[in-house]
């Protein structure tokens, strides 16, 4: 799957990009029709410890799904986002089966 990673307000390192790619590649076992995904990493200018926001948009034929999470670290946010997307893709796949 093609993953586009964009960072807002900071520079992203290669390790984080590879981590995101690995996690999102695992989503293909839940729905094999995933075309691409866009990941936006934002560093909020607040004094809170949870100031790292991630938005993940998954494109499937005829639809797209978006998840937004804010956590203490980008890795934690990616893990939580992937778990949410797993549930969404399983529901999507079951829904598509009923129409076929």
From TrEMBL:
<dbReference type="Pfam" id="PF02482">
    <property type="entry name" value="Ribosomal_S30AE"/>
</dbReference>
<dbReference type="InterPro" id="IPR036567">
    <property type="entry name" value="RHF-like"/>
</dbReference>
<protein>
    <submittedName>
        <fullName>Ribosome-associated translation inhibitor RaiA</fullName>
    </submittedName>
</protein>
<dbReference type="InterPro" id="IPR003489">
    <property type="entry name" value="RHF/RaiA"/>
</dbReference>
């Amino acid at each position: 799957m093609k993953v586009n990673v964009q960072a807002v307000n900071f520079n992203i390192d290669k390790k984080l990009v590879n981590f995101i790619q690995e996690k999102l590649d695992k989503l293909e076992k839940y729905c094999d029709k995933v075309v691409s995904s866009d990941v936006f990493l934002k560093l909020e200018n607040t004094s809170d410890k949870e100031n790292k926001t991630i938005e993940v948009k998954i494109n499937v034929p005829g639809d797209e799904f978006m998840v937004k999470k804010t956590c203490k670290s980008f890795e934690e946010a990616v893990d939580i986002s992937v778990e949410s997307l797993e549930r969404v893709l399983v529901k999507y796949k079951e829904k598509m089966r009923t129409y076929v």
